């Protein structure tokens, strides 16, 4: 059952508000709008990239009917805290999961992620806690006073590393859902995050090339003027 169908089944509709993340997943905001409700964006936790329970609680109003939680990059959201918010305010809490990979594939991704954790320099590696399955290995590229993630990504691609920007534009910046709302962690994550490959098919030589390319750049490219 899709998000819109679940919201309808719960009686969520016109005049209601549903709290959703703005860090990706525009389809959630579209599903909320489809049932006649208003998507309300809450900020993310900078470690998990999932909804921050404190930010969700701060976004609750008398019109809030539900919260839609998304697990990101293989790192689960803090469901206990989010369900606690739901219980305190009488809200429906929906989960949007990620497709599960076979155990062997997850184990190989974790092995490659562990290698990158130990070898990478100049980028902030992901938190590895709480059962992370590394559907994406997302690092932070921090600049000297300003992000230079895009220049870093271009340089890696020149060296043959298949990296990608996981969220190019947060949903609250898109024309159909533009909101005047303070989401500093969402904005920062959209500007700084970069997904590096950890596919099970990667060889040791592939992993060494990724590390060599990243460490040669140092994560701190000078911005071009």
Automatic annotation (TrEMBL):
Pfam families assigned: DegT_DnrJ_EryC1
Keyword Transferase in record: yes
Tree of life domain: Bacteria
Keyword terms, alphabetized: Aminotransferase, Pyridoxal phosphate, Transferase
GO biological process terms, semicolon-separated: polysaccharide biosynthetic process
Transmembrane segments: none
Residue ranges the record marks as coiled coil: none
A Gene Ontology molecular function term of the record: transaminase activity
Family label: Belongs to the DegT/DnrJ/EryC1 family.
Protein name: DegT/DnrJ/EryC1/StrS aminotransferase
């Amino acid at each position: 059952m899709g998000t819109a169908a679940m919201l309808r089944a719960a009686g969520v509709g016109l005049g209601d508000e549903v709290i959703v993340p703005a860090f990706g997943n525009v389809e959630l905001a579209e599903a909320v709008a489809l049932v006649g409700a208003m998507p309300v964006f809450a900020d993310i936790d900078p470690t998990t990239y999932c909804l921050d329970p404190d930010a969700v609680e701060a976004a609750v109003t008398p019109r809030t009917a539900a919260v839609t939680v998304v697990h990101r990059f293989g790192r689960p959201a803090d469901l206990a805290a989010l369900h606690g918010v739901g219980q305190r305010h009488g809200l429906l809490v929906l989960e949007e999961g990620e497709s599960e990979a076979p155990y062997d594939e997850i184990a190989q991704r974790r092995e490659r992620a562990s290698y990158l954790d130990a070898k990478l320099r100049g980028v902030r590696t992901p938190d590895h806690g709480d059962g992370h399955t590394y559907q994406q290995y997302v690092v932070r590229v921090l600049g000297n006073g300003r992000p230079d993630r895009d220049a870093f990504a271009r340089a890696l691609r020149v060296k043959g590393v298949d990296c990608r920007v996981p969220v190019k534009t947060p949903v609250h910046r898109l024309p159909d859902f533009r909101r005047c709302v303070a989401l500093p962690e969402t904005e920062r994550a959209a500007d700084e995050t970069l997904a590096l490959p950890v596919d099970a098919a990667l060889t040791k030589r592939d992993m060494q090339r990724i590390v060599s390319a990243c460490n040669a750049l140092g994560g701190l490219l000078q911005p071009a003027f």
